[in-house]
């Protein structure tokens, strides 16, 4: 291919190496999503290869942001893939002074047991006036910023079935 300039035709200025280059995302599946961080709701492109998310970028078709993401949104990939993410919990026993490392499974089991214990001991059928209330007031739930509508729906559904009334979330999307 030759390109016309004011003098005449010149050789293709793009090197063979550059012509052979391909996007690192070329063979990835592209899924459209929404940034989980704030109510602006910038659209994102999530690129997946072999069942793994390999990149998340702004969506040029977004009427809100036209492909741009703020620094927070641009870091969304690190929510999924991050070598610095803690994989253990720190536990301090009642009355203890030192933190101990425990596996996540241990923490999940313990939380489940504590929830069951609270439900078994504190569930109220009636209030002081005898009115039927079916509630559990010794557990409260505070949702995180990156929970989406579907996750908040499931959390509310689970906790309401336990009788929990104090439920909130940082609803953004
Ligand atoms: S990219 Fe930034 S401005 Fe856009 S939704 Fe995410 S956090 Fe909000």
Could you write a compact summary of the structure shown?
By secondary structure, the protein is α+β, with helices and mostly antiparallel strands. The protein is built from five helices and ten strands, in the order ββαβββααββαββαβ. It is 27% helix and 31% strand.
Description:
By secondary structure, this protein is α+β, with helices and mostly antiparallel strands. Among the domains are: 25-85, ADC-like domains (N-terminal domain of TfIIb, Single Sheet), CATH 2.20.25.90; 123-168, no CATH class. The protein has 5 helices and 10 strands, in the order E-E-H-E-E-E-H-H-E-E-H-E-E-H-E. A 3-stranded antiparallel sheet has the order 3-4-5, with no helix packed on it. It is elongated, with a radius of gyration of 26 Å. The model has no long low-confidence stretch (mean pLDDT 90). The structure holds iron/sulfur cluster (SF4). Iron/sulfur cluster (SF4) binds at residues 35, 37-38, 40-42, 65, 69-70, 72-73.
Strand content bin: 25-35%
SSE run: EEHEEEHHEEHEEHE
- The CATH topology of the domain at 25-85 corresponds to N-terminal domain of TfIIb
In CATH, the architecture of the domain at 25-85 is Single Sheet
What's the rounded overall pLDDT mean?
90
Q: Radius of gyration, Cα only, in angstroms?
A: 26 Å
Bound compounds, each kind once, are: iron/sulfur cluster
CATH H-level superfamily title of the domain at 25-85:
ADC-like domains
Secondary structure tally: strands: 10
Residue stretches low in confidence (pLDDT < 50, at least 5 long) are: none
The largest pleated sheet is described as: 3 strands, antiparallel
């Amino acid at each position: 291919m030759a390109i016309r300039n004011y003098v005449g035709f010149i050789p293709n200025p793009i090197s063979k190496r550059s012509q052979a280059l391909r996007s690192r995302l070329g063979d990835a599946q592209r899924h459209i999503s929404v940034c989980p961080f704030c109510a602006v709701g910038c659209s994102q492109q999530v690129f997946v290869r072999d069942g793994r998310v390999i990149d998340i970028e702004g969506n040029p078709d977004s009427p809100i942001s036209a492909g741009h993401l703020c620094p927070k949104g641009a870091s969304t990939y690190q929510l999924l893939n991050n070598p610095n993410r803690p994989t253990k919990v720190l536990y301090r026993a009642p009355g203890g002074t030192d933190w101990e490392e425990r596996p996540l499974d241990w923490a999940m089991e313990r939380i489940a047991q504590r929830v069951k214990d609270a439900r078994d001991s504190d569930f109220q059928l009636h209030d002081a006036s005898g009115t039927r209330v079916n509630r559990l007031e010794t557990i409260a739930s505070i949702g995180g910023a990156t929970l989406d509508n579907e996750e908040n729906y499931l959390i509310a559904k689970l906790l309401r079935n336990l009788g929990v009334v104090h439920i909130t979330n940082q609803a953004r999307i």
